[in-house]
Amino acid sequence: MKGLIALAATLASWAQAVAAEEGMDGAALYQQNCASCHGSELQGQPDWRSPGPDGRLPAPPHDATGHTWHHGDDILFRITRDGTASVVGGGYESDMPGFGDSLRDAEIRAILDYIKSTWPERERANQRERTQQK
Fold first, then answer.
1. What angle do CA 23, 130, 67 make, to 5 degrees?
2. Plastid: is it a keyword of this entry (predicted)?
3. What ranges do the domains of the chain cover?
4. Cβ(131)–Cβ(68) under 8 Å?
5. Is the CA virtual torsion 109, 114, 116, 117 positive or negative?
6. Which fold has domain 26-132?
7. Is 60 exceeded by the pLDDT of residue 78?
8. Please, which pLDDT band fits residue 58 given cuts at 50, 70 and 90?
9. Which of 132, 120, 7 is nearest to 74 (CA)?
10. How far, in Å, CA of 110 to CA of 20, rounded?
11. Which of 36, 60, 75, 77 has the fewest Cβ atoms within 10 angstroms?
């Protein structure tokens, strides 16, 4: 029983630390980890809907002109943490790596929150609805 109480206290302490991290700067994390491919203004790479010579799609924009807002939070989180190919499966190839080894979950969420904060209300509402549909 003492072990369970200690575990509960540890988990509660961890949850408080994560909550404190939620205030981190998602915009700065985006610039450090995402902008080199997705653009400093979230504009993506040119011709992002057409495969390049290697058969892979260029990095899409994360602004309202892209399709990021077409996905719920769970998918966006898993793509960022694990990489597109691991989420899509079926032999899909992508240049989007997973950042699970270099970013903490709270940092990934901060980046996604920053991206979502740049969208007009229509796109944010659509994305919230997709997140709730699970």
1. 85
2. no
3. 26-132
4. no
5. positive
6. Cytochrome Bc1 Complex; Chain D, domain 2 (1.10.760)
7. yes
8. very high
9. 132
10. 12
11. 36
